[in-house]
Amino acid sequence: MSPWWRNRDATGLKWRLILKRALWLALVIPGAGQVYNRKYWKLPIFYGGFVGCIYAMTWNNQMYHDYAQAYMDIMDNDPTTQSYNNFLHLGATITSANEERYKNIFKQRKDRYRRWRDLSIFTYCGLCLVSYWCLRRRFLIRLWHIRWPLTAYCTDGHIK
Questions:
Q1: What secondary structure, in 3-state letters, does 75-112 show?
Q2: Rg (CA), the chain
């Protein structure tokens, strides 16, 4: 038997889960469906994933733009544009002997951060789809049991 505070709401009435309400809450406010379902342990995982993806997107986007600007500056022959000097180690200078090496380095890093930015965007979208799919799947399973309660279980008690 579960404790009284898990089955009662603030008014003292027995709490009932309404999955349609949880689905709409989750669509309006991400994670609100988990709070409504009283699955509080999922919130740090859920929001940690979102915050991690957003941080990765912003970091990789900023680094991509910085390296793209440095690559454009090193490729042109204008001596007034030298943003690539911000990425050089202390005391390092670009000469005609190592210019091709640095051009290659800046191009590779620009492409790397662009790829990582795109990967973090796809990961964020995947996390959104997985969270929506899990809640929707639970809603559809509950709907299946409500409409077809006799055919939803096999004789051994497992879902068909």
A1: HCCCCCCCHHHHHCCCCCCCCCCCHHHHHHHHHHHHHH
A2: 27
Q: How far apart are CA 153 and CA 160, in angstroms?
A: 6
pTM: 0.65
Helices (H), the chain: 4-7, 19-28, 32-36, 42-75, 99-147
Out of 16-20, 104-108, 155-159, which region has the weakest mean confidence (pLDDT)? 155-159
The rounded distance, in Å, linking the Cα atoms of 51 and 128 is 12
Name 113's Cβ contacts closer than 8 Å, sequence gap at least 6. Answer: 60, 61, 63, 64, 67
Of residues 112 and 156, the one with the higher pLDDT is 112
Amino acid code (one letter) for 31: G
Identity at 42, one-letter amino acid code: K
